[in-house]
Specification:
Order of helices and strands: HHEEEE
Structural class: alpha+beta
Shape: elongated
Distance between the termini: 26 Å
Helix content: 25-40%
């Protein structure tokens, strides 16, 4: 999903973790298109980026798959019941987490 990666790169230009954020949003967007109704004709997904205090939060909200999650949550990726996936970056200099 190059558009999602370009979007994140433009928003986070100059931040040292931009490559990691691009990788994560690309994976989450690809999963949304491959595994949910977001990949069906007329489907969509939404990317939200929050950058605060040296931390970034990237959220990809998809249209769900009509069932529950198929994978267990991990330390870097979680899937909510509604089908949204999210990832939070590693804090820099002990910065507090994004809300």
């Amino acid at each position: 999903m190059p558009e999602a990666r370009y979007f994140v790169a433009a928003l986070l230009q100059g931040w040292s973790g931009v490559d990691d954020a691009q990788l994560v949003v690309g994976e989450l967007a690809a999963n949304a298109v491959k595994h949910t109704r977001s990949g069906a004709p007329g489907g969509s997904f939404h990317v939200t980026v929050v950058f605060r205090d040296g931390r970034v939060r990237v959220v990809v909200a998809d249209q769900g798959g009509g069932g529950g999650p198929r994978s267990a949550p991990s330390a870097t990726r979680t899937r909510a019941a509604g089908g949204s996936s999210s990832w939070s970056g590693i804090p820099r200099s002990g910065a507090p987490p994004c809300p």
